[in-house]
Amino acid sequence: MAEPEVRIEGFQAAVDEALQDIEMAGGNDVEVIDIEDGDEANGEGAGLDDAGREEEAARTTFIDYLKSPIIELLVGQGEEQTLLTAHQALLTKSPFFADAVAQFSTEATTRRIEFANEDLDAVGCFLQYLYTGEYFPKKVGDALESDPTQAASGDDGDQLLKHARVYTLAEKLGVIELKSLAHSKVHRVHSTARGELAYARFVYANTPRTDTTIRKPIASFWGQRSHVLRHEAEDDFRALCLEYPEFGFDVLSFVLDARERKGVEAEPKSGRKRARGM
Fold first, then answer.
1. Which of 11-15, 112-116, 119-123, 235-239 has the lowest mean pLDDT?
2. CA end-to-end span of the chain
3. Is 85 helix (H, G, I), strand (E, B) or coil?
4. pTM metric for this prediction
5. How big is the CA angle at 275 (ends 269 and 276), to the nearest 5 degrees?
6. Which residues touch 189 (CB under 8 Å, ≥6 apart)?
7. Burial 185-213 (b: 16+ CB within 10 A, else e)
């Protein structure tokens, strides 16, 4: 049985009012757009520049966002499938959603986008960010707010994976500011060797080789600590190296580069020539 419909807290009244207006119009047609993993939004990765934000702020109020049409997001599959709703004017801040919404016909009374393969929690964090500019848990100095839904030990890597999933979703949706926020939270999570390996596995499975922003710190982490942490989860470390050779190569490259730099620094700087034998 599907989970109950989830709404964004704090905006329930506005959402309900908009949905009632739709029902009173007498329309029953639901136009659905199925978003596949391989689909790309026009202008993906493009963020709003400062000038664009200033112009938008001058002509758009938050009430204007809440007056915009409601978009339904059907996330997940089977019994885990959940219906979320959000305002179109906020969703279209994402180039990905702007492209998806442009495909709706003007006659449709209910607009729905299917996200069958996306993580529900990550989509929820994205929507929370659209409405508030943040998502839970918030940054508190060099740490994060306490999250009672996550294991304190971090042994399973769930805390790291939460932000990694938000990072990859933000990349797909073209929301660069959210991507940067998620990455900054990763570095505020305390985890274990197995948790770090679970995080590394997800990153190397879901990011391109060119994404050094998130991959390079992983190689650096293991390159500096592998002599200690590897023995806490040696079998998992070996399995990850075999499953994703790029991970092993990146760690090895970091170690060799560090040794090379250390060797260059240790070489004598004297310009005197070695004495010749008589």
1. 11-15
2. 93
3. strand
4. 0.74
5. 140
6. 144, 154, 159, 160, 163
7. bbeebebbbbbbbbbbbbbbebbeeeeee
